[in-house]
Amino acid sequence: MILYISFSKEKGxxxxxKYQFDPVEKTRNGTWKGFKGETVEQLFTLKKKGxxxxxxxxxx
Length: 60
Fold this sequence. Notes:
The chain has helices spanning 40-49, 51-54, and strands spanning 2-8, 13-22, 24-26, 32-34. It has 60 residues and is of the alpha+beta class.
């Protein structure tokens, strides 16, 4: 499972982005993929362009 965390520069600690995670499984060749075949990079890009942009973590 991928848990998405952020670093707070003001407070100097990491925190989990509430309700944000993706289930993944290890493939035979040792890489990780989502349950629909997505790469870890694809899963992150979807979060980045969606919920994380909406929350103001990434600019549009």
